[in-house]
């Protein structure tokens, strides 16, 4: 009996040591990532965490995240990963700070105020600055910044999720969704495909239920034709420019011809006027030309600009997140990155490598796998407009389940929707490229319906 008791004690101590090495270290790391309070933050009742996760030790690629837990019952609500596009733009600058996050930044960049339509009312929301080189995320291998593309971004995001779940083990089997916009129209289905393949090969699955993406780049050809059609149908360009662009532009070519470039450049520079192309009916910020970095990249002649919707709002974020006390509170910039935090990375977008012509084949595979997939479009965006998305989705040739109808939010038409077998499409009325920024209440209604797996309200 004495020997058996000794063996039991040894086994017990071994189990304790095993727990400390695994779960105990995760708990310690988790608490080290806890945000006690952000500078200028109003009092809130939910927990926040932020920090770094290494995704490639050899190259020193490290991604920065910010988790805002649900305002009520966080232990039972799903986990949502939010990704912004660019490629090369920060989910903290846009998604967290001017779209679905719990806080908005004051004009002085010195304080925060509450967003009453934040998505963490319905889910635990995880913002990821991806890929390395965006925001506070970094790499110790400078050549990474000139060799990044879709494939590496998706693979690093998958590794991030696997390692992040080890730090937050209570989210391991939680219902998981992905959301985002713009070039995340590539990021999101590509990451979902990585997760789907990972789940088939591993016993410890990521409980991915679906994704929702807005104003999403989907297919170069159909997006291109749909974008030019939007410009013409909304009287932004002349009949002559419309006909010239359609004549000279091959929307699937990696390099546009000179005649195509000339036709698009003339339309944009001489016919658009001083408007915000991300929101054609709202005035641009007065400091738009002087203070905001903007780039135009003609890939298949679709305009991809680094900036997000409101350059003034973006300026507020750059003021706030460059404050040393903010970075300290968020456990950010711990290695003293040799450049300022910016909303978007010029070097990434100018050197982006692989970018497939279409993600429609991934949609087909994931629809067949039974994932919940919603696509939405703000109808005043001319950069990735509603016509572009409709042209792209139409070529999935899906069967209509519920015909086109108006949906409601706050007693008004929030937009229009059509439900297909395997996919729901919705427009959001009077919303630009960043739908939750322009129409926060309608965006929240959309998100709640998506999470519930229910059709958008008819009244």
Task: Give a verbal description of the structure.
It is globular, with a radius of gyration of 23 Å. The relative contact order is 0.14. It has two domains: 29-218 and 308-459, Alpha/Beta hydrolase fold, catalytic domain (Rossmann fold, 3-Layer(aba) Sandwich); 220-307, no CATH class. Strand 1 and strand 2 form a beta hairpin. It is built from 15 helices and 14 strands. The strands form three sheets. Strands 1-2-6-3-7-8-11-14-13-12 form a ten-stranded mixed β-sheet, sandwiched between helices. A two-stranded antiparallel sheet has the order 4-5. A two-stranded antiparallel sheet has the order 9-10. Helix 5 (220-233) packs antiparallel against helix 6 (239-248) and helix 5 (220-233) crosses helix 13 (386-394). It has 459 residues and is α/β, with parallel strands linked by helices. The chain has helices at 2-32, 92-99, 150-167, 184-201, 220-233, 239-248, 258-271, 288-291, 311-321, 324-329, 346-350, 360-368, 386-394, 435-438, 440-452, and strands at 48-56, 61-68, 79-83, 103-105, 112-114, 124-129, 176-181, 208-214, 297-299, 302-304, 372-378, 400-409, 412-420, 423-428. Residues 9-27 and 288-311 have low confidence and may be disordered.
């Amino acid at each position: 009996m004495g020997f058996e008791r000794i063996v039991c004690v040894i086994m017990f101590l071994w189990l304790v040591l095993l727990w400390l090495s695994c779960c105990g270290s995760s708990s310690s790391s988790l608490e080290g990532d806890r945000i006690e309070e952000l500078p200028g933050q109003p009092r809130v009742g939910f927990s926040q965490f932020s920090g770094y996760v290494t995704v490639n030790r050899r190259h020193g690629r490290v991604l920065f995240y910010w988790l805002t837990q649900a305002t009520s019952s966080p232990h039972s609500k799903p986990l949502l990963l939010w990704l912004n596009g660019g490629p090369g733009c920060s989910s903290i600058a846009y998604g967290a700070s001017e779209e679905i996050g719990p806080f908005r930044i004051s004009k002085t960049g010195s304080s925060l105020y509450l967003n009453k339509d934040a998505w963490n009312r319905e889910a635990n929301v995880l913002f990821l600055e991806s890929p390395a080189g965006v925001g506070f995320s970094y790499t110790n291998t400078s050549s990474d910044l000139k060799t990044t593309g879709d494939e590496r971004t998706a693979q690093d995001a998958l590794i991030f999720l696997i390692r992040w779940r080890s730090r937050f083990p209570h989210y391991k089997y939680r219902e998981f969704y992905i959301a985002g916009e713009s070039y995340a129209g590539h990021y999101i289905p590509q990451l979902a495909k990585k997760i789907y393949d990972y789940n088939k090969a591993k016993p410890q699955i990521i409980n991915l239920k679906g994704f929702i993406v807005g104003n999403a780049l989907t297919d170069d050809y159909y997006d291109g034709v749909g974008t030019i059609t939007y410009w013409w149908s909304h009287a932004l360009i002349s009949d002559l420019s419309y006909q010239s662009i359609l004549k000279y532009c091959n929307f699937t070519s990696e390099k546009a011809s000179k005649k195509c470039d000339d036709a698009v450049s003339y339309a944009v520079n001489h016919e658009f006027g001083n408007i915000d192309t991300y929101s054609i009916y709202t005035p641009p910020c007065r400091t738009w030309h002087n203070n905001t970095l903007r780039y135009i990249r003609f890939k298949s002649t679709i305009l991809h600009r680094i900036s997000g919707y409101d350059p003034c709002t973006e300026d507020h974020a750059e003021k706030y997140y460059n404050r040393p006390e903010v970075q300290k509170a968020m456990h950010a910039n711990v290695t003293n990155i040799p450049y300022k935090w910016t909303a978007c990375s010029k070097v990434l977008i100018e050197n982006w490598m692989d970018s497939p012509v279409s993600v429609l084949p991934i949609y087909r595979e994931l629809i067949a796998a039974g994932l919940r997939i919603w696509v939405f479009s703000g109808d005043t965006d001319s950069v990735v407009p509603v016509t572009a998305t409709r042209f792209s989705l139409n070529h999935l040739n899906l069967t209509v389940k519920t015909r086109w109808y108006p949906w409601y939010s706050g007693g008004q038409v929030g937009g229009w929707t059509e439900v297909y077998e395997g996919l729901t499409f919705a427009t959001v009325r009077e919303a630009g490229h960043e739908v939750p920024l322009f129409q926060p209440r309608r965006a929240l209604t959309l998100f709640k319906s998506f999470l519930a797996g229910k059709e958008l309200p008819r009244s």
